[in-house]
Write a structure and sequence with these properties.
Elements (H helix, E strand, L loop, with lengths): L9 E4 L8 H9 L5 E2 L3 E2 H5 L3 H5 L9 E6 L3 H10 L6 E8 L4 H5 L10 H13 L4 E5 L5 H5 L2 H8 L4 E5 L16 H6 L4 E4 L5 H9 L4 E4 L1 H5 L3 H5 L7 H14 L4 H8 L15
Helix pairs in contact: 1-13, 4-6
Bound molecules: flavin mononucleotide.
């Protein structure tokens, strides 16, 4: 197991449903991402032994990845963790407290879970029982009212995962509205490890985040449109779009990526000038 250390600033590829399978994860890792994430995996599908859900947990190489779970039930989590065998590259679990889909909110999960502090801690305690690293990825609450009440800060102060990835939007916000970078300072002041997420595309943003004590960044859409972004932000050499595309196709063939992943990634790679025009959700 690859426990994440924040002794240096860390660059993550974000979980991206129908995009971040092993091929994209390895591509981004090869081009500067320190860690990557599986897309959201539903605990319910894991405990009911759904094959497609379990397939999301297969690692085909050693690329470091956290496994992201959508989970709310302690008993189910315990049942799943009893069965789980970490593969090489596994870098811990991540709990999704950010998903804004109505079907997820209806279940009280995703961004609807941000206010459920005691329940979140109970889930964290179960990961600890099995000695697995655990992080939380959250939005700022389910809606503007919850953001204004700072439910996210209450969660950060009163739960104890290894680190928090804070997507600086609330659940009612679409990508057309900018992420609110002003919230990070207060998050950092809690003394917890904070990774920033949302609209990160350039070095001046990263420099600002470093200067206020943020310990890493998680990059989603920009990582698909331009997998070079990680090396670019690190000030390292980067590859041509053509060679990146070729490398992706080789990886997707090798890891037998499903068509929807290939199509989603291939239509976006190299189109980073269009991120604003192609807001994905
Ligand atoms: C196509 C797509 C799929 C996503 N899937 C997930 C997911 O499975 N789990 C999750 O926590 N967030 C998911 N997100 C949110 C991203 O991880 C990230 O928080 C968001 O895109 C903001 O970061 P960015 O501006 O760097 O893209 C998804 C976003 C997009 C655009």
């Amino acid at each position: 197991m690859n426990k994440i250390s924040f002794s240096k600033f860390i660059y993550f590829l974000a979980p991206l449903e129908d995009n971040s399978d092993n091929a994209l994860r390895t591509l981004c890792f090869n081009h500067g991402a320190d860690y990557t994430s599986t897309e959201m995996t539903r605990l319910q599908g894991l405990v009911t032994k759904n094959k497609e859900t379990w397939s999301k947990l297969n690692f085909h190489d050693n690329t470091p990845a956290i496994i992201q779970l959508l989970a709310g039930n302690e008993k189910s989590l315990d049942i799943f963790l009893k069965d789980f065998k970490p593969e090489k590259g596994f870098s811990g679990f991540n709990l999704n407290l950010g998903c804004p889909s109505p079907d997820v909110i209806k279940l009280g999960l995703g961004c609807a879970f941000v206010k459920r502090v005691a329940k979140t801690q109970k889930l964290i305690d179960i990961f600890r029982k099995y000695n697995y690293p655990i992080s939380i990825k959250l939005r700022l609450g389910m809606n503007l009212k919850e953001k204004q009440k700072k439910v996210y800060l209450n969660l950060i102060k009163n739960t104890t995962p290894d680190f928090f990835i804070v997507h600086a939007r609330h659940g009612g916000q679409k990508y057309i509205e900018p992420a609110d970078f002003s919230i990070y300072e207060e998050c950092v002041k809690t003394g917890k490890i904070i990774v920033a997420n949302g609209d990160i595309t350039n070095k001046s943003q990263v420099d600002h985040l470093k200067s206020i004590g943020v310990k890493g960044v998680m990059i989603g859409r920009a990582g698909v449109f331009n997998p070079n972004i990680f090396n670019m932000l690190k000030g390292k050499k980067y590859s041509s779009v053509e060679s990146i595309k070729k490398e992706y196709i080789i990886l997707a063939d090798k890891f037998k990526s499903k068509d929807r992943y290939r199509n989603n990634v291939l239509k976006r790679i190299g189109k980073d000038k269009d991120i604003d025009a192609q807001r994905l959700i």
